[in-house]
Amino acid sequence: MTTTSTNSGRPKAGGGEPAARRRGRGSSAAASERREHLVKLAAELFAEKGFQATTVRNIADEAGILSGSLYHHFDSKESIVDEILSGFFEEIMTRYREVIDRGEDPRATIAGLVRIAFGTLEPHRAAITVMQNDWNYLKGMERFAYLTKSEDEVEKMWVDTIKAGQEQGLFRADVDPKLTYRMIRDTVWVAVRWFKPGGRLDAQGLAEHYLKVMFDGINTH
């Protein structure tokens, strides 16, 4: 049975949903869109100026609003960077786990992890830059305790895979797994400083070149 208005016999817009509720939903969507826009603007500033050097006023000026208006969406710039970093770790860890869960041989697994890591350079440039520049500052705050926990989990994924490759004779036994992981990690993350989207190689092309050098070296065979 169709719900109708009391005075016209026509169905109510929105299938009978009260107008106030529809307006509320629209306002909520607009607020969410505005919040997302502010996060993107702040992310660019954090990547350019550094998290500690960027002020709430800088973000508000970039957005064309008063500083007080920013507090309608976030209680502090720490809340903004928290959203940036938590989103990054949630995505990369989910994708890392998917690679691990495939159960491929260690070499294929490491290659998959490398491709994912390089694939984050463009969409998560700000998060990676903040981690490089402000890691020690942020991890001292209780709200960012998850950063160390997440990094430890990521390290274990890589180190366990490298160890498995050594046990299977795929990787050299005379390399330290943890040191190897950290060298790979730092090589990937530092690329965010010079990688330019739209250049000769995209992120995946960069990953393939890195895998070639990592697995095969630069010597002729």
Automatic annotation (TrEMBL):
Domain HTH tetR-type: 32-92
GO molecular function, one term: transcription cis-regulatory region binding
Gene3D superfamilies in the record: Homeodomain-like, Tetracycline Repressor, domain 2
Protein name: TetR/AcrR family transcriptional regulator
Chain residues forming the annotated DNA-binding region: 55-74
InterPro entries reported for this sequence: Homeodomain-like_sf (IPR009057), HTH-type_TetR-like_transc_reg (IPR050109), HTH_TetR (IPR001647), KstR2_TetR_C (IPR041490), Tet_transcr_reg_TetR-rel_C_sf (IPR036271)
Pfam family, one: TetR_N
Originating organism: Actinomadura logoneensis
Keywords: DNA-binding, Repressor, Transcription, Transcription regulation
Residue ranges of the region described as Disordered: 1-33
